[in-house]
Amino acid sequence: MTTGLTIGISVGGAIVCLLFLLKLFFASIRKKLDVIVRDRFDEKEIIGATTRANFFGEKSKGGRQIRGNGALVLTKDDICFIRAMPEKEYRIPLRSIKAISLPKSFNGKTVFAPLLCVQYRTEDGEDAMAWAVRGPDKWKETIGTLVAKYQ
Predict the structure, then answer these.
(1) In CATH, what number is assigned to the domain containing residue 120?
(2) How many whole angstroms separate alpha carbon 84 and alpha carbon 99?
(3) How many domains does the chain have?
């Protein structure tokens, strides 16, 4: 066997092992988030939820902030995001939401797909948050229907 082939097999094996470890790591985080969601919310109040939300941050804090994966939970009153690491919870009351959109970027970051973006009022003025989620159009529609009840 040539040195190049040996190095190629070694690098390929290392990449496969790394991908496997990352998959285990993210699976354990999702399990932890499932437990947190079950503990913090009554199953009957959850309208939508995912433990695969990729948080793009708060507009007011700009592009230099901790982003990350977590659980996005929609209830009849709130949108709640629980960031996995470091753990932090964000809540947006539905009555404070001004607009919902599907931009392809937020705070200077993109995943080249539509993001769920929610603009809302705070005590300090307006702000926005965005997430990469599966089916952002369905999330937008459902949130929009709920928000319409407050307007």
Answers:
(1) 2.30.29.30
(2) 26
(3) 1
- Short-list 99, 49, 62, 96, CA closest to 77: 96
Query: Residue 16 half-sphere exposure, CB side, CA atoms within 13 Å?
Result: 6
Pairing between β-strand 78-83 and β-strand 68-75 as defined by DSSP bridges: antiparallel
Q: What strands, in cross-sheet order, belong to the sheet with 116-122?
A: 88-93, 78-83, 68-75, 46-58, 125-132, 116-122, 97-101
**CB proximity list for 84: less than 8 A, separation 6 or greater:** 29, 32, 33, 68, 69, 70, 71
Q: What is the spatial distance between Cα 125 and Cα 15, in angstroms, rounded to a whole number?
A: 46
Using CA atoms, how far apart are residues 67 and 83, in angstroms rounded to an integer?
8
Q: Count Cβ atoms below 10 Å from residue 121 Cβ, excluding itself.
A: 14
Per residue in 29-79, pLDDT (tens digit) is: 777 888 888 999 999 999 999 999 999 999 999 888 888 999 999 999 999
pLDDT of 70-120, one tens digit each? 999 999 999 999 999 889 999 999 999 999 999 999 999 999 999 999 999
Q: For residues 113 and 33, is the Cβ–Cβ distance under 8 A?
A: no
d(CA 68, CA 74): 18
Which residues constitute the domain of residue 47?
3-148
